[in-house]
């Protein structure tokens, strides 16, 4: 009854992100009502393992009392303090200091946002301000990767390379450019890391030349693992090669860690595994484990000092009412305590188990590729392993596989071309990881029986 009336109210009033509005009206909402650990429950009482941690964000899992307590305490004491007018709050200052302490290299300065999109958007403004401060305002062209996702703000949507974010929205702008993704499984040069790295470097160099040389190019953006593009893992050494090339060309290197930071791939920052120090990092999601919204831009000494000197006594005109929100910061501190108190370690162990479990599915007739790092993974389905033929589009793999997994008690992300994404909470138990694998195998077996898939397999 409750659920039915909610479905109707939702249909009439709530606009859902990145949905077919008509499709959603027809399908109706699935209402989630509670969560504990790695498990969520829906309005019918059905329990599911959340193999996607909400939207790759509830890294600490549901029902963490210390986080709830931290938020309540802060709300009672001081629910809001602006960062404008030289004001501040203790949790925001402490969180910034603790994050700077953990961040790679000299990324010592933190600008807090409300999420990932406005973190990326902030970097676009900071990058431009940086080059103005350096007296090089003509360095105003931005380069990102195909299959990249950098949020849904007006500027970020054009850095994003997913067609649905462009069509009808008038982006990308003429200063936003793409080069091919390293995508090892589908790279025309094959899967050899050295070949992929050489190719990506050549592609960036060619793009820079096409844009008028390094004196026109402001920044290059990359995710350590391309999440929303289908969990695409560049070969080891790729990030470092691209970082070094950008340094050589005097192009800022911005690493978008909105998904990968805070234990998703193992450590607090995925780029520390790549052995690089970027000019800026964007984060969100795991920063607060999504208990409340918050994102953060990490800024290097070079970028910070250049902007500060460039502005001198003038204000750097960038700010949000809710930047450095004290409740979000208090939650961030409590979540960091959890990460450092054993959660990262558990995530590392469970990540190994998840990767091994997914690799055990490689013998399934539909599994073409298994990839990932830590608690971030994907399998790519194909009807012909040699030719790497994607599932037939007419079989609508995204909804069919998502629905099937749901029925099996598992939340996953199903991408349109037959990629299944995994990002379970770091608190998962061994039994939960095993259940994710077992339920996935059941979903694959059912999909193998679909008449259209059987025809395509022949
Ligand atoms: C790499 C990356 N950047 C930016 C964003 C945007 O973050 P948000 O949805 O919090 O605005 C996302 C979201 O998934 C992301 O994966």
TrEMBL record:
Coiled-coil regions, chain positions: none
InterPro entries in the record: Aminotrans_3, Aminotrans_3_PPA_site, PyrdxlP-dep_Trfase, PyrdxlP-dep_Trfase_major, PyrdxlP-dep_Trfase_small
PROSITE patterns recorded: AA_TRANSFER_CLASS_3
Keyword check for Nucleus: no
Any GO molecular function: transaminase activity
Cofactor: pyridoxal 5'-phosphate
Domain of life per record: Bacteria
Keywords from the UniProt entry: Aminotransferase, Pyridoxal phosphate, Transferase
Family to which the UniProt record says this protein belongs: Belongs to the class-III pyridoxal-phosphate-dependent aminotransferase family.
Protein name: Aminotransferase class III-fold pyridoxal phosphate-dependent enzyme
Species per Swiss-Prot/TrEMBL record: Endobacterium cereale
């Amino acid at each position: 009854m409750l659920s039915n009336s909610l479905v109707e109210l939702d249909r009439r009033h709530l606009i859902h992100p990145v949905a077919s509005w008509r499709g959603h009206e027809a399908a109706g909402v699935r209402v989630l009502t509670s969560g504990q650990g790695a498990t969520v429950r829906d309005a019918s009482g059905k329990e599911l393992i959340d193999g996607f941690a909400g939207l790759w964000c509830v890294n600490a899992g549901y029902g963490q009392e210390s986080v709830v307590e931290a938020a309540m305490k802060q709300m009672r004491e001081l629910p809001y303090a602006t960062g404008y007018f030289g004001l501040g709050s203790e949790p925001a200052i402490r969180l910034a200091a603790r994050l700077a302490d953990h961040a790679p290299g000299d990324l010592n300065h933190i600008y807090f946002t409300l999420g990932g999109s406005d973190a990326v958007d902030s970097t676009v403004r900071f990058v431009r301000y940086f080059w103005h401060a350096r007296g090089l305002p003509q360095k105003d062209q931005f380069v990102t990767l195909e299959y990249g996702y950098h949020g849904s703000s007006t500027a970020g949507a054009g850095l994003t390379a997913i067609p649905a974010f462009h069509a009808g929205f008038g982006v990308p702008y003429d200063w936003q450019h793409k080069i091919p993704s390293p995508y090892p499984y589908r790279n025309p040069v094959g899967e050899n890391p050295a070949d992929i790295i050489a190719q990506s470097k050549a592609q960036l160099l060619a793009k820079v030349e096409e844009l008028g040389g390094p004196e026109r190019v402001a920044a290059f953006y990359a995710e350590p693992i391309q999440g929303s593009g289908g969990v695409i893992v560049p070969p080891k050494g790729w990030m470092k090669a691209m970082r070094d090339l950008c340094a050589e060309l005097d192009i800022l290197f911005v690493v978008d860690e909105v998904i990968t930071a805070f234990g998703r791939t193992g450590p607090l920052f995925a780029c520390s595994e790549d052995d690089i120090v970027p000019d800026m990092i964007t984060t969100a999601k795991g920063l607060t484990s999504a208990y409340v919204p918050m994102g953060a831009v990490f800024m290097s000494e070079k970028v910070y000092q250049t902007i500060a000197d460039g502005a001198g006594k003038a204000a750097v005109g960038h700010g949000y009412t809710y930047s450095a929100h004290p409740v979000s910061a208090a939650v961030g501190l409590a979540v960091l305590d959890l990460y450092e108190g054993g959660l990262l370690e558990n995530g590392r162990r469970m990540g190994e188990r998840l990767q091994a479990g997914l690799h055990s599915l490689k013998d399934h007739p539909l599994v073409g590729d298994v990839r990932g790092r830590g608690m971030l993974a994907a399998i790519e389905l194909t009807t012909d392993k040699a030719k790497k033929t994607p599932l037939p589009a007419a079989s609508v793999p995204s909804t069919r596989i998502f629905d099937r997994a749901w029925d099996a008690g598992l939340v996953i992300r199903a991408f349109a071309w037959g990629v299944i994404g995994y990002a379970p909470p770091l608190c998962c138990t061994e039994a939960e990881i095993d259940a994710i694998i077992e339920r996935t195998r059941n979903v694959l077996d059912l999909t193998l029986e679909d008449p259209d898939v059987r025809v395509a397999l022949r």
